[in-house]
Design a protein that fits this description.
The chain is an alpha/beta fold and 350 residues long. The chain is built from eleven helices and ten strands. The protein has two domains: 140 residues, Nucleotidyltransferase, domain 5 (2-Layer Sandwich); 172 residues, ATPase, nucleotide binding domain (Nucleotidyltransferase, domain 5), CATH 3.30.420.40. Strand 2 and strand 3 form a beta hairpin. Bound molecules: 5'-O-[(R)-(carboxyoxy)(hydroxy)phosphoryl]adenosine and zinc ion (ZN).
Length: 350
């Protein structure tokens, strides 16, 4: 099967073609085009929904055409079309959904609406052929969750954030430190020359029962530490704060993931566990090292897709579409885009 995927739920306009004809063991990504709107949003210090929707509308046709061309195919060679149907900024999701439906209707191709989070969740099956079940750590700008992925459409939530998402905490910390937007990569770069032990920041919920996360107290502690330093933060102050923040985040995620692994082992039959990290924050090198240590200590196989497939892209949407279409599912052309769509309900994508 060759499936076209479309992703427009935030500030990346993306289209990709994937195929399940295996070359070298894993399915093939025939093309993967991502147009970032960062420059459009940077002056505002964050993603502006109306600007995002207009930019998707302006660029998506050309991005889809490029994805098909780079795959070396014509529309006739496709077996189906998948587009993110939510959750996300509704203007962008509408643009992607209408484009996918239009191509599907004109070419008489099956169409399937994909939950964006399911796209992140299944990426490891595209990149590393990971079998079900596995434990998923989903860390992105809008989400911070631990889920048991039992099968296609079967996701059990073990823990989630009770306030900010972890990517959001990175973005807000970056803003506070004057590191600009997007925050995650900026904090990671600044942290490289910083001392992670200089500031004793809190580790919210560490050691507590359950697998939930909390980041708003940590963000407040960073702000307080910055205020205590006075008006003019030196470059070293900023680097030390960034490193201390990142270390706190890694500690918390390690603690919560270890608990989730325990819970996951009870759910499965005790066979060797697999931990998959996904979402934009999984591109963070310090977090990757933390998870590597955790998995070495617990006899767990760690799978982290390459950074370009951790941040938003359409290959993950095409792949999730391929898995669903291959299972005989499809969505009606009356599918309504969903601004909110919990992953645990992704099975109900009628
Ligand atoms: O998955 P994603 O591309 O979009 C969402 O669905 O949210 O994740 C974007 C988030 C942003 O908050 C961004 O700051 C964060 O991922 N991020 C990072 C890194 N790269 C992206 N956070 C920490 N370190 C990074 N290297
Ligand atoms: Zn995402």
């Amino acid at each position: 099967m060759k499936i076209l995927g479309i992703e427009t739920s935030c500030d990346e306009t993306a289209a990709a073609v994937v195929s399940d004809e295996r070359t070298g063991g894993t399915p093939a990504i025939l093309s993967n085009i991502v147009l970032s709107q960062l420059d459009d949003h940077r002056p505002f210090g964050g993603v502006v929904p109306e600007i995002a929707a207009r930019a998707h509308l302006e660029h998506l046709d050309a991005i889809v055409a490029r994805a098909i061309e780079e795959a070396g195919l014509g529309l006739d060679a496709l077996d189906g079309i998948a587009a993110t149907g939510g959750p996300g900024l509704i203007g962008g999701v509408l643009v992607g959904t209408m484009t996918a439906k239009a191509i599907a209707a004109a070419r008489n191709l099956p169409y399937v609406a994909i939950n964006h989070l399911e796209g992140h969740a299944l990426t490891a099956r595209l990149t590393d052929d990971v079998p079900f079940p596995y434990l998923l750590l989903l860390v992105s700008g809008g989400h911070c969750q631990l889920l048991a992925v039992r099968g296609l459409g079967s996701y059990e939530l073990l823990g989630t954030t009770i306030d900010d998402a972890v990517g959001e905490a990175f973005d807000k910390t970056a803003k506070l430190l004057g590191l600009g937007f997007p925050g995650g990569p900026a904090v990671e770069t600044a942290a490289r020359t910083g001392d992670p032990a200089r500031f004793a920041l809190p580790r919210p919920l560490r050691g507590r029962p359950g697998c939930d996360f909390s980041f708003s107290g940590l963000k407040t502690a960073v702000r307080q530490a910055a205020v205590d330093l006075g008006d003019d933060l030196s470059e070293q102050d900023v680097a030390d704060l960034a490193a201390s923040f990142q270390a706190a985040v890694c500690d918390v995620i390690a603690d919560r993931s270890r608990r989730a692994l325990d819970a996951f082992l009870e759910i499965t039959d005790g066979s060797a566990p697999v931990l998959v990290a996904a979402g934009g924050v999984a591109a963070n090198g310090a977090l990757r090292e933390t998870l590597t240590s955790l998995c070495e200590a617990t006899g767990t196989r760690l799978v982290v897709p390459p950074p370009a497939l951790c941040t938003d892209n359409a290959a993950m949407v095409a792949w999730a579409g391929l898995e669903r279409l291959r299972a005989g599912e499809r969505s009606g052309l009356d599918f309504r885009p969903r601004p909110r769509w919990p992953l645990a309900e992704a099975a109900a994508a009628e």
